[in-house]
Every structure is written in structure tokens, then in C-alpha cells.
Amino acid sequence: MKKEYLLAPGPTPVxxxxxxAMAKPMVHHRAPVFEAILEEVREGLKYLFQxxxxxxxxxxxGTGAMEGAVTNTLSPGDKALVVEGGKFGERWAQICRxxxxxxxxxxxxxxxxxxxxxxxxxxxxxxxxxxxxxQATETSTGVLHPVRExxxxxxxxxxxxxxxxxxxxxxxxxxxxxxxxxxxxxxGSQKALMLPPGLAxxxxxxxxxxxVQESKLPKFYFDFLKERxxxxxxxNAYTPAISLVxxxxxxxxxxxxxxxxxxxxxxxxxAGAFRQAVKAMGLELYAPSAFSDAVTAVLSxxxxxxxxIVKILRDKHHFTIAGGxxxxxxxxxxxxxxxxxxxSDTLAVIAALEMTLLELGHxxxxxxxxxxxxxxxxxxxx
Length: 382
Ligand SMILES: Cc1ncc(COP(=O)(O)O)c(C=O)c1O
Description:
The structure is a single chain. The chain is α/β, with parallel strands linked by helices. The protein has helices at 16-22, 32-49, 62-73, 87-98, 116-125, 147-154, 206-214, 224-231, 242-258, 260-280, 306-315, 343-359, 368-378; strands at residues 5-6, 55-58, 79-84, 102-107, 129-135, 137-138, 143-144, 161-165, 184-188, 200-204, 284-285, 295-299, 319-320, 322-323, 332-336. Helix 1 runs antiparallel to helix 9, helix 10 packs antiparallel against helix 13 and helix 12 (343-359) runs antiparallel to helix 13 (368-378). The protein is globular, with a radius of gyration of 21 Å. It binds pyridoxal-5'-phosphate. Pyridoxal-5'-phosphate (PLP) binds at residues 10, 61-63, 88, 135, 139, 165, 167-168, 188.
């Protein structure tokens, strides 16, 4: 018997209700039945993104929406400032450069969050910067960047927008688009939205829509204006990923039923319990002070290759987690708390991790991590 647990930071488990919704017979995307689904989805997405504006839907992975965010807001030669403290920060810079945007990098040590004052300084030094790009949660390091503080710096500048990658964040950790005055927020289906990969989203502020009107970079499929024009009529410009959108209607229903506040509290509870557990096992967090509740990155014990931990968890205990990337490869492993996960999943991965460490001869006392997690979850640690 082989029971699989998926605790990688994307893709994440999909609830049976969503799987069943996606298994329904195909409908036509110009038929009233699908228009009604899109209407419901539009409302659900506004709730999830906490915005009054339309949230655009594309049939692609998250990177497609990232590319669209660049090509729809900027023009050739525009200046951009990219917060780069991990793999996905690098991706913003790569997309900008691919389209001839003059991207300056604000480097951040991996495992640390950006200092908002450094960002303020960089913007004061170069007021011509048209867009600031950042991750809300940088998945490669488990870091939570101070997006709210950064938005407070960027939003008073009429000629600069803040573009936030919320792909490993939205629906897991607070990111109220309108309230924090975020200009562009992109997300993907395969994380906290409890769906398979294949849908990406973009929400834009009024200020960002003004940038869209002025933007001169080339675009075709990812044409935000064209997509919005169709969406307000419950249409898509092209054939949508119909089954995924039907699944999305179901997952958004579940998100509404649980409520955003309860969802954020659940993620905080599971991530908090996991952090206590790894510390009780004698391990250290890769982002000890700026951790996100969406994904936790843990330093492997000295002398133990993190890839070996990932492999034993997968092959022997049937838990899929993630290793480190690039400079963090072999040094860290990452466990997700996003989406359709509960206390039992979290306790199970902690138990499997404790067994793995024992098998590797790491001097851990079995049950220490579980005890710390259970105490945290039940409030018995106070
Ligand atoms: C923060 C972040 N940005 C961007 C991406 C890229 O998304 P995708 O692989 O869906 O294109 C990911 C995916 O893991 C991510 O975690």
C-alpha cells in the first residue's frame, strides 16, 4: 500500500469536490452555462484578492501572468527596480530584460527579507523607476517580504507602480490588494487555490490600468485590456481552460465558506506548529526572522545533504516535499502549508521527518517535534 502526501510548495493537493467538479462533461465557453460560471468566478476572485476591480484569468502557469504584468504596464527602455532575494525575484529581472526593460536589481541575501528603507533609498536615487517588482512570499527561501511597508513607499508616487508576485502567497497569507494599494498582483492556480496547475491571475489597480493604457511593449495572448473587455461580459478572449475554471468555481466556493480570515489563521497555525517542530528537533529555519506561513524552508543538519532527506521522505515515507534551488541546493528542504492541508497532514510530515532524521543518524529524540507541534496547535505551549 502506498499512500502519497503532497506537501511541496506547488503543485498542492486538490480537494475531492474540486476534482469531481472538473470531471463533469465539457461545456461550451460561449454558452450561458459557462457564462454563469464565469460570473460567479469573477465575484469569487474579487473576494479572494480583496479588490473591487476585475481579476483577469489566463490559461497558463504563474509565469505567464508575470510576463503579462511586465508587458502590459511598461514600455521599451523603462526603468524597473527588482527585489531579488531568490529564484523568483530573478525571474522578474529575466522577464524585464527579455522585453528590453532596464531592470535594476536590489539584491537581498537569500533567507532575508528586503529592507524597505533600502528600497525607499533606491527609488529616491532614481525617481524615473516606473515599476517595482517583488514577491510576497519568495518560495525558494520561504521568506515573507514586507509588501505592506513597500506599498506605503510606492503608492504615493504617481509614476511608479508596485507589482507583486503573490503566486505562493495569495489565499494562504494576507494580501489585501485594494486596502494595501497594490498595483498588480499575480497568482497561480496550483498553490493555495487548491487547483491543478494551468490557470494564472492578475489583479490591477486603477493606477496600473492607466499604465496599461500607456504601455508600448509587445503583447498578444496576454493583452490585459482585451481580456478585461471580454471578462466584464462573462467571456474570455480565447478558449479558456474550461475544466479548470469549473474547478475554480468550486474552490472559490470552498474558500468563501471557510472565510479568508479562518484560512489565514489555519495557515498560521500549521506553519507555526511546523516551525516549532523543526526547532524542537534541533534544526534551524532558513528564514529565522522573516518566514512566511505559506512555505517553510529548513536548514539541513550539519553534514546531511538536504536532497537525501527529500529522497528518503519521498521513497520511504511517500511525502513529496521540495529541496533547495541553486545556492540553497543540498542545504535546505521546503515544506508547504498551502491550500488543502490540515493539522493531520502537518503532524504526519513532522513524524515522517523525525523518522527520516533518525534513520540518517541525526541525534534527534523521536517525538520531540510532534510534541512541540501538538502543543502549539492546541495552545498548550503557553
Ligand atoms: C513565488 C513564485 N513565483 C513564480 C512562480 C512560477 O510559477 P509557475 O511555475 O506556475 O510558472 C512560482 C512557482 O513555484 C512561485 O512560487
